[in-house]
Specification:
Length: 304
């Protein structure tokens, strides 16, 4: 009999495959190029995550998990890629190459009409960056904090993975990962539906001009509700605990997103990379995890 986490993986991959298949049709691919690339990137990200998760869960005849390191290795690779993206922005040559890639990707995604408003160009390289032509990993306190946050996240993910397997509650790891990702989608939908209706000002106009207060308020609530449903399925937590954890992950996800936006604004870039078409770099994809995962890990270890 399939366990809840295995069934969840099958359902998510099936749904993503169906959506990608429809978007791959020439008519929809021409009409919705960016949505197609986002769905395709999601398919590969989920396949990699779930593949490593399943390999880590394989038992031998002795009841041991000889491949437990598979998922932890993925977390380490994510951390290394994130560190590379941070260090690249501290080097003139690396940043120049990234800006060229971003401009090329925008053209490929058929968003040329938005280029003037949203796409960084080579003129975005500030005098501060030009003066720092030598390779530097840490260029400011904000960069240093991003590096520390990235290391903390990866260590927390590895520790949480080991802790959940030891307590035979592996579905908790999927719960926290997807609770954080639900938040991005929920904020976007609520921001589009309610943005500007109740509050005249933006949430953080100098850091993230497109993020609305309505999107943050209603998005975190919607995300918490969806994640609570998932938590009741995948975890041994009660309804109250599921909602509390889900809401914590949603709120900290907003903070993590603003933190990464401030990091990008300091370097005058729209995305930290082009590895994930439609999403940006690895840092763009994991920003909602930076604060919530470490907090949840400590909470689960000491309290839950």
């Amino acid at each position: 009999m399939l366990t809840p986490d295995y069934l969840f993986i099958i359902l998510i991959m099936t749904a993503n495959t169906l959506v990608l298949s429809v978007l791959s049709l020439p008519k929809y691919r021409r009409k919705l190029p960016k949505i197609y690339w986002i769905a395709r990137s999601w398919w590969w990200m989920l396949a990699l995550l779930f593949g490593c998760y399943l390999v880590s869960s394989l038992q031998n005849k002795g009841g041991h998990y000889p491949y437990w390191w598979a998922l932890d290795s993925l977390f380490v690779l994510i951390g290394l890629r994130g560190l590379y993206e941070i260090s690249r922005l501290g080097r003139l040559a690396g940043k120049t190459k990234l800006l060229h890639k971003l401009a090329t990707q925008v053209s490929a995604l058929e968003h040329l009409s938005e280029k003037k408003a949203t796409e960084p160009t080579l003129t975005n390289i500030t005098s501060e960056t030009k003066d720092s032509a030598i390779p530097l990993v840490i260029c400011s306190p904000l960069d240093a904090l991003m590096v520390v946050s990235l290391f903390t996240l990866i260590i927390s993910l590895i520790f949480l993975h080991q802790l959940t397997w030891a307590r035979e509650a592996s579905g908790i790891l999927l719960f926290v990962l997807f609770a954080s990702q639900f938040n991005d989608i929920a904020q976007y939908l609520c921001g589009r539906a309610f943005g500007g209706r109740f509050f005249q000002r933006k949430l953080a106009p100098k850091i993230s001009p497109n993020k609305t207060i309505e999107g943050a308020l209603f998005g975190t609530l919607l995300s918490a509700v969806l994640a609570t449903i998932l938590g009741l399925w995948l975890t041994p937590f009660s309804l109250l605990v599921c909602f509390g954890c889900a809401y914590l992950l949603a709120v900290t996800g907003v903070i993590g997103d603003l933190f990464e936006s401030a990091f990008k604004r300091r370097h005058d870039v729209k995305d930290t990379g082009t590895l994930l078409a439609g999403h940006g770099g690895v840092l763009d994809r994991i920003d909602s995890l930076l604060i919530g995962i470490p907090l949840f890990t400590v909470l689960y270890w000491l309290v839950l």
